[in-house]
Amino acid sequence: MANFFSDNKDLQFHLEHPLMRKIVELKERGFAEKDLYDFAPQNFEDAMDSYRRVMEIAGGVCGDVIAPNAEGVDHEGPRVVNDHVEYASGTVENMKAVVDAGLSGLTLPRKYDGLNFPLICFVMANEMVSRADASFENIWGLQDCAETLNEFASEELKQKYLPWVSAGATCAMDLTEPDAGSDLGAVMLKATWSEEKGTWLLNGVKRFITNGDGDISLVLARTEEGTTDARGLSMLVYDKRDGGVKVRRIENKLGIKGSPTCELVFTNAPAQLVGDRKMGLIKYVMSLMNAARLGIGAQSVGLCEAAYREALKYAHEREQFGKAIIKFPAIAEMLSNMRAKLHGARALLYETTRFVEIYKQYTHISHERSLEAEERQEMKFYNRLADGYTPLVKLFSSEYANSLAYDAIQIHGGSGFMKDYPCERLYRDARIMNIYEGTSQLQVVAAINGITKGTFIEQIARYAEAEYCDAVKPAVEKLAALTERVKAMVERVETINRDFPAYKDFHARRLVESVGYIVMTYLLARQSGEAAEYVSDTRLMLKMTEAYIAAAETYIANSEGSDVALINEVGEQY
């Protein structure tokens, strides 16, 4: 009996973080519902006990049901039957297991039959599901779309859809189109108001839609006649039971094959407006995308965990030249670096989740009552951190998922290239993670302002002021020096950028990743007082940080503004 929560001390550590007390107080509104619902917690300890128990249930479902089904789902995949998706048989079993276990509507309010759990628990469950099967996370994890409805939809729509999600309804985000991928402002699917039917009617095509035949879909559509930009777009909710949408095909993908990625044809499909017209992309999709990026962060970390465990297991079992290959320094070093990256990415994931959680809770409270001045200030503080950290965690975790999946195959040698071992599937599944919900390049674009405007440097200063155990104090001293070097890089880039405006964009990734390495090393150092393995992780991550910053520093120091024009010119020659 495998349990993906109880066998992972790192997850248990993050569930016990000191900020959880504040998060629980905000989420439970001072435990105001303890007399209204039998299952509402009476106090902090009661809430934490509930979280642990449900995470153990989720861990059991992941280990005993979803993981054993993963290979079969990957082989069978979904198919189109009568214009709709039919899941692989293993996916159907997975859905039944998670619904029967009560793992739907985790974060939704109790009045909509949800569990009212904090975002931390949902992200943690997403990570465990992805460790079991990354493709199933793309189905189960999309219930997070309900949070957008909970935040922006009318009470009528909430009453209609949120209890259905809590009962196990699946969701989808219908955003991209054949001619509108990352550029969502170019979306042209048309929404027309029908006086006769008293509803909006959707017409057009959507492409690359994850779980595209979900029960409930949030659809980005053009409601304003004569517009061609973001100001003409609105968000609508479509109910599969109403008909009007056909699945033209399921894409034949490299990986995450259990998750149906669909091309959809809308023909007078009825839909209802979410929130205000014209705010679809400007407000609601931004909220959706930030949540999705956190979800991909969890998916990526879950895959990192799976890849590391597969590599570690094989390295202990495989013998060459009379001893297990883990005894060879080259293999041991790979595994040590894999573990440091895994723990660093996870630390960044849950740090980001805490920031997002607190900001979101204050947002919900502001809809119920006016915030006190101190609360408004705190909401702005965490909003700023959430905006900066969300693209950072998506960037690092998705790149690390690819890195660890690659190394897992390398440790398996020729066997890793065969379908006899799960690492082959992990390698294929990982490749999409630094592409969808915004490529790594777009995450850099989203994060660079947090570098130049001081958000990250200010937070790093707060990390520097914290208390650390003696074992990592030398590392913390080195981090202070590395931070000064990064500040110097930022200053040089900004100075040259005044005369060569593309210069900052050219070096943005070097700056963002330099800061990301420092942040992850601090986070691991902060954890080092809890377990010895975090001390070694800190030291290894510090070495990676020093190496990366040295390379970035050298590149920037030897780079002039005119280099940007030269590179553009070379690109145009081909």
Task: Map the helices and strands.
Layout: H1 9-15, H2 20-28, H3 44-76, E1 79-81, E2 84-86, H4 89-100, H5 119-132, H6 134-140, H7 145-152, H8 155-166, E3 171-174, E4 190-194, E5 199-210, E6 216-222, E7 233-239, E8 245-250, E9 261-274, H9 280-317, E10 319-320, E11 323-324, H10 329-368, H11 373-412, H12 422-430, H13 440-452, H14 455-465, H15 473-497, H16 503-527, H17 532-557, H18 562-573
Parallel strand pairs: 3-6
Antiparallel strand pairs: 1-2, 4-5, 5-9, 6-7, 7-9, 8-9, 10-11
Helix pairs in contact: 2-10, 3-4, 3-5, 5-6, 5-9, 9-10, 9-11, 9-12, 10-11, 10-16, 10-17, 11-12, 11-13, 13-16, 14-16, 15-16, 15-17, 16-17
What does this entry look like structurally?
By secondary structure, this protein is of the alpha+beta class. It is built from 18 helices and eleven strands. The strands form three sheets. Strands 3, 4, 5, 6, 7, 8 and 9 form a seven-stranded mixed beta sheet that branches. It has a two-stranded antiparallel sheet with strand order 1-2. Strands 10-11 form a two-stranded antiparallel ribbon. Helix 16 (503-527) packs antiparallel against helix 17 (532-557). The protein is globular and about 70 Å long. The model has no long low-confidence stretch (mean pLDDT 96).
